[in-house]
Specification:
By secondary structure, this protein is an alpha+beta fold. It is built from 15 helices and 16 strands. The protein has a six-stranded antiparallel beta sheet with strand order 6-5-16-15-14-13, with helices on both faces. Strands 1-2-3-4 form a four-stranded antiparallel beta sheet. The protein has a two-stranded antiparallel ribbon with strand order 7-8.
Length: 493
């Protein structure tokens, strides 16, 4: 149940971070808390009993419930309890379908604005044990839309929320909201280093996970704009010695940028075995380059970290520079991003926070050092600050990095991607009527998100040195309530 929910949740609002990541969840506001009653049917009784047992968060009580009513779910008991901690449980919002043996209902996370669709089925025997419990994250239904706030209302409620989250251990990081390029809210909470009691600040460098994909995409489009790369060229034109001939001959630059090339992931047992040996992009290509496409390139969408490794390798081949030197010279420098980079984890970096994770089973969170790669790559990793992310957003919108034509190409969702909303290394989506583009990132002990909302003039940057959903739930809380109303999306580009 939990795995499917997390996959759907990412798709309901934005797309994946790292393939190993389990997903992001938000803080409840109490709106729409009206009570909905489950029907007096066998399926309704089981749905009510499951919600009561799950929401209590009592491990032994929930184990007893599963043993009696849904024994097949016991094999994923620990994941279920982690799921409970992240969601805070669920409140029933609407019954969509009901029979004696089946219930379909809308639920909302207690710890989030996120909605889900729950489908529960029971057996026909007298015990009425549960045979199916499918819970999928869905976009928030229009009938439950959240009210927009004024800037003063938003900053006041956001500050209270962050103070409460930080006090409860649910947030440690930095938050920046800007209007027309200038901050209207900029605060930091929690500790960057617990052992030495060093606080997080606005200049703290946080690991950013897949947010690096934005830099890789900008770099690729810069080369396209300069006439050095063509979007419909196959990668074999640039990586002439690429091992797998199907990938080399079929996968285009456009498909790499949109996750439609079938190039697969970089994470799994082989990554775990060679984690610290993978020091260059070529090391990743050597490890993964012999495998063929997962599906016919261009036929569907599937998030691919390896595709962005290949884009980094192409940037290196075409530019004659290392990926790291290229983005430093052509993106960070013109944007004024002096605190962003991807230096190796073993190299000291001033003001770089320590990430703390509970994903290894620790209740208080422990440093994530054993999960980190040698260094960040063109697919993800590295570090930045919320202030640098605002500089990046401003540079993009001022056309310091790309022309207006190529900016539109970069950030407009492409046909054939999930909901036609993934652009080139950016997600293009409408959040409660406000169109934004950006990207999230995360892994154990790190989480971040950047949203650039050009019509309304807002930029939201949130970084945290905790597991997801620490930053993503704050970003979603803000963007769901930004001042303004519905915007018309320009689909002409």
């Amino acid at each position: 149940m939990t795995a499917e929910y997390f996959v759907a949740r990412k798709r309901a609002r934005r797309f994946g971070l790292f393939a190993k990541l389990i997903a992001v969840l938000l803080l409840v506001t109490g709106a729409y808390a009206q009570q909905v009653q489950l029907p007096e049917t066998p399926a309704g009784h089981q749905a009510a009993a499951w919600l009561e047992a799950f929401n209590r968060g009592d491990r032994e009580a929930y184990r007893d419930f599963l043993q009696k009513n849904f024994p097949s779910q016991l094999e994923s008991f620990d994941q279920e309890m982690q799921f409970r901690e992240q969601t805070g449980g669920f409140e029933l919002r609407k019954i969509e379908d009901s029979t004696a043996a089946k219930i379909v209902a809308l639920v909302q996370e207690r710890a989030s604005d996120q909605f889900g669709r729950m489908t529960l089925e029971i057996e026909s025997s007298e015990q009425h044990r549960i045979t199916k419990l499918d819970l999928r994250a869905i976009p928030r239904p229009a009938e439950f839309s959240l009210p927009h706030m004024s800037e003063n209302e938003l900053t006041a409620t956001l500050r209270k929320k962050l103070e409460a989250d930080a006090a409860a251990g649910g947030f440690a990081g930095a938050v920046l909201v800007a209007k027309d390029g200038k901050p209207i809210f900029a605060e930091a909470y929690g500790l960057a280093d617990r052992e030495h009691k060093i606080p997080d600040t606005l200049s703290t460098r946080f690991r950013i996970g897949s947010m690096n994909k934005m830099f890789t995409a900008v770099a690729t489009l810069q080369l396209v704009q300069a006439g050095k790369v063509k979007l419909d060229d196959v990668l074999g034109k640039y990586l002439t010695d690429y091992p797998n001939k199907d990938i080399a001959a079929k996968v285009t630059i456009h498909q790499l940028l949109t996750h439609t090339g079938g190039t697969g992931d970089i994470f799994g047992p082989e990554f775990d075995k060679h984690r610290l040996e993978l020091r260059t992009l070529q090391d990743y290509v050597k490890l993964n380059g012999n495998r063929g496409p997962e599906f016919e390139p261009g036929s569907r969408w599937k998030y691919s970290n390896y595709g962005f490794i290949l884009l980094g390798a192409i940037i290196e081949k075409v530019s004659g520079q290392s990926y790291y030197d290229y983005v430093r010279e052509h993106i960070y420098a013109p944007a004024g991003m002096a605190s962003t980079g991807s230096e190796p984890e073993g190299q000291p970096v001033a003001e770089r926070s320590i990430g703390y994770t509970k994903m290894n089973g620790g209740s208080q969170g422990s440093p994530n050092i054993d999960t980190l790669p040698y260094r960040g790559t063109s697919a993800g990793g590295g570090y930045s600050t919320v202030e640098d992310l605002l500089k990046f957003a401003n540079a993009m919108q001022e056309n310091k990095l790309l022309s207006a034509q190529y900016m539109a190409m970069l950030t407009t969702g492409k046909p054939g991607t999930r909901d036609n909303s993934y652009a080139y290394g950016f997600e293009d989506h409408t959040i409660n009527g406000t169109r934004c583009f950006g990207h999230g990132g995360g892994a154990p002990g790190m989480n971040g998100n950047l949203e650039i909302c050009p019509g309304s003039g807002y930029v939201v940057a949130v970084l945290a040195n905790l597991d997801p959903p620490a930053a993503s739930r704050i970003s979603d809380y803000i963007t769901n309530r930004l001042p303004g109303g519905p915007e018309k999306r320009d689909t002409s580009k």
